[in-house]
Amino acid sequence: MSELTLPTARQRPLDPPDEVTALRQQAPIHRMTYADGHQGWLVTGYAAARAVLAGPHFSNRPENNVHPPIRSARMEAAMRPELMRVPPGFFLRMDAPEHTRYRKLLTGQFTVRRMKMLEPRIQEITETCLDAMEAAGPPVDLVQEFALPIPSLVICELLGVPYEDRDRFQADSKLLVNLETKVDDAVAALGRVSAYLHGLIQRKRKEPADDLLSGLLESGELADDELTGVGVLLLIAGHETTANMLGLGTYALLTNPAQLAAMRDDPSVVENGVEELLRYLTIIHLGPIRTALEDVEIEGVTIKAGESVTIHLPAANRDASRFPDAERLDVTRPAGGHLTFGHGIHQCLGQQLARAEMRIAYPALLRRLPGLRLAVTPEEVPMRSDMTIYGVHRLPVTW
C-alpha cells in the first residue's frame, strides 16, 4: 500500500511544495493514498497531465469522484452522497455528451473577438479603480481596491448582474472555495447564490437587456434551472480566478523587480508575460480530480477503472521537459501551452476574458504607480493556502 499522501505545505509562497517537485523529478505518475484510504494516483508530469485531462475515459462527474485527496471539511463534504447530484446547468461537473450541449451553447459567448470588444470597457473600469486608489492615497489593500473589483465588475456587466448586488455573492463565493467550509455552510451559500440568480433570471424574462443571461434566455435553449446553474458557475469562476491572478501576480512581480520592470516598460512583453504568470503561479493549486471509467495506460502506468487521479497542475507547469528553467519566473519566456486553464473538453471557457483583463490591468497598474511596492514584508502577506484557488487574502501596498 502506498504511503504517499498529497503534500500541501509550501516552503515558499510562489512554489509548489518541495515534496511534489521531488516527485515530478522522479516520475510523472505516482501511487497516492487518498484521505479515505483509496489507492489512487497523483500526476505531476506535464505530458501525463495533458493525457489525463484530454482522455475520454476519465470522468469529472462527482458521483464518480468520491475520494477526497486531502482531509478538509469542504472536500470531504463534497463527497457526501446527498451532494453527488449535479445541479442543472453545472456543466463543469458533467461528462460528454451532456457537457457538450452546454459547451456548444456557451462557447460563442466567449470568443476572442467578443472579448476584444470588451477591452475598452475593461480599460475604463481599470482606470476608475486606479483613480480611486490614487484619491484615497496609500497604503491600500490591492485585493479590495483593484484585484477584486475589476473582474467582479466585468463579469457582472457581461452577465447582466447588478454590481451593487456584489455583497450578495462575493462572500458566498469565498465560502464555496474555502477548504474548511462546513457542509451545511457550503450548501447554504450555494443556495443563496442560486436563489439570487434565479430571481434575477425571472426579472430578465420580463425585462430582457443586452447581456449574456438575457441572450441565453431568448435563445430558448435552457430551462430556468439550467440557466441558474450556468449563471452561478460563470459568476463565481468569472471573478474568483482572475481576482486571485491579479493579486498573486502583482505580489510575484513586486518580489521580482526585474520582471516587474519588463512588464511595466515594454508593451511587447505584456501578452507573453501574462502567460508566464499563469504558468508560474497556477492558482488551481490542488489540481482537478478525474476517475478512470476503464483501464487506461499513461506513461507506462496502468490506471485501473474506478481509480481516482489528482492532476497537480502547479507541478506539471514546472516540468522542465516542457518549460526549460521552469522554476524561474521569466516574462519573456514563450509560455504558451501551460495547463493553468486546463486541457481538453473542460478547458476554461472564460480564459480569453481572463487574459484580456490581465493584459490591461497589470501594465495599467504598474505604469500609473511606478513606485508601487509592498507596504509590509513579503512574509507578512497572508496567502490563500486554505482555499481551492490560491492567491493572497490581502496585499498591502504603497507607492
TrEMBL record:
<keyword id="KW-0503">Monooxygenase</keyword>
<dbReference type="GO" id="GO:0004497">
    <property type="term" value="F:monooxygenase activity"/>
</dbReference>
<dbReference type="InterPro" id="IPR001128">
    <property type="entry name" value="Cyt_P450"/>
</dbReference>
<dbReference type="InterPro" id="IPR002397">
    <property type="entry name" value="Cyt_P450_B"/>
</dbReference>
<dbReference type="InterPro" id="IPR017972">
    <property type="entry name" value="Cyt_P450_CS"/>
</dbReference>
<comment type="similarity">
    <text>Belongs to the cytochrome P450 family.</text>
</comment>
<dbReference type="GO" id="GO:0016705">
    <property type="term" value="F:oxidoreductase activity, acting on paired donors, with incorporation or reduction of molecular oxygen"/>
</dbReference>
<dbReference type="GO" id="GO:0020037">
    <property type="term" value="F:heme binding"/>
</dbReference>
<dbReference type="InterPro" id="IPR036396">
    <property type="entry name" value="Cyt_P450_sf"/>
</dbReference>
<dbReference type="Pfam" id="PF00067">
    <property type="entry name" value="p450"/>
</dbReference>
<keyword id="KW-0408">Iron</keyword>
<keyword id="KW-0560">Oxidoreductase</keyword>
<keyword id="KW-0349">Heme</keyword>
<keyword id="KW-0479">Metal-binding</keyword>
<protein>
    <submittedName>
        <fullName>Cytochrome</fullName>
    </submittedName>
</protein>
<dbReference type="GO" id="GO:0005506">
    <property type="term" value="F:iron ion binding"/>
</dbReference>
